[in-house]
Amino acid sequence: MLNKGLLKWVLVGGFVSGILGAKAQDIKSLEQACERGDAKSCMELGNMYAEGKGIKQDYAKAISFYKKACALANTGGNQCKMFVKKDRKRVLSHKNHGQKSMALQRKQKHSTVSTIKEEQPSTTVLSAGLSQEGITIEKNINIKELYEKACNMGNSMACYKLGDMHYYGKDVKQDYEEALEYYQKACRMGNSLACYKLGDMYYYGLVKNRDLLAMSEFLYQRACTLGNSMACHKLGEISYYINQDLQKALENYQKACNFGDPNGCYKLATIQAEVISRENRYIKAIEFYQRACNLGNTNACIDLANIYLEGKGNQRNIPRAMDLLQKACSMDNPMACASLGNLYIEAKGDQRNYSKAVELLRKACDGGNAFACGRLGLMYVNGNGVMRDYSKAVVLLEKDCNMGNALACADLGNIYSLGLVEK
Fold this sequence. Notes:
Layout: H1 27-35, H2 39-51, H3 59-75, H4 126-132, H5 143-152, H6 156-168, H7 176-188, H8 192-203, H9 212-225, H10 229-242, H11 246-258, H12 262-274, H13 281-294, H14 298-310, H15 318-330, H16 334-346, H17 354-366, H18 370-382, H19 390-402, H20 406-417
Helix pairs in contact: 1-2, 2-3, 4-5, 5-6, 6-7, 7-8, 8-9, 9-10, 10-11, 11-12, 12-13, 13-14, 14-15, 15-16, 16-17, 17-18, 18-19, 19-20
């Protein structure tokens, strides 16, 4: 009989073998043990071939040993607790074994933005997972059957995968009713991703029900309780915009933020700064803006920078504001780049830096920020940080004008009326 904790070396999200001292194992002994029916030895061999640990990497052999381990597990009547899923697209090449394969990265599976630890799917779906993720295994593999086998053995992630297949119409005909059935099964097993997806189906009216909102809230609540940050955030949105329950909204946004959702933190900050009226409101707002910014929400970085620039709540701090704008700009937020560029233009003394401003405004303009295009155009008109070039100025001002900036249109008119460029 296969022990329940036998196959917990591989976690969803990549080959994470966790085999201690695998290199010291005698491969031949493992192969002999595997032949005698020891699933653990077959699994260790699969891990070794998959990651090239102490042996030449060979996905075909890895798959062969994984399948054998899974077959032995199924024969023993127990579930395999293993699943391998690629992090990046990798394709087995049977024609060129000399080509160096990309190493499979180690990364534990988390739901988007959150730190949810989902149940690990069964080894039964190893081949399905690899094939669906772009790794060629066999010509006629039936992905759906493999997931169904694991799902029927009680593996929530396999049921969730089946739900996704039917929801998106991947390798099967799109069918919301079938998707609903599999998501429900996975949700009942405690899979937070499935509960969240079910909530979405009710919320967006993809399911026939008398009270779609109540059902969606119920399912989002279940997913949130299971640690899904997206579900907590969605509950916050429902509480705030639909039910107009500020206290409940704050509670749900707080949960989402605590689970690492940048949008939850950002919403908390916005409510603290703009809705809740109290003397120290910006102190709390700054805390949540900073958390959201650190988690990658560029709008939070910008809003926090504005608090420091405008001195709201006696918090004026220009250098800190510039650091925040630089952070958001480095994450490709055009507005942040434009704002920072403008600060370098308007700075006094040694702080003024036209060259840096040009660099930032060009990045913002290329990102679609109309203000940046116009500001950069004026720099070419005046020769600030660049050689004076009216032709380039016209191109940039036209972009700004076409995006609705009346001042840029007026500047263009002035350039043409003065004959600085030919019409």
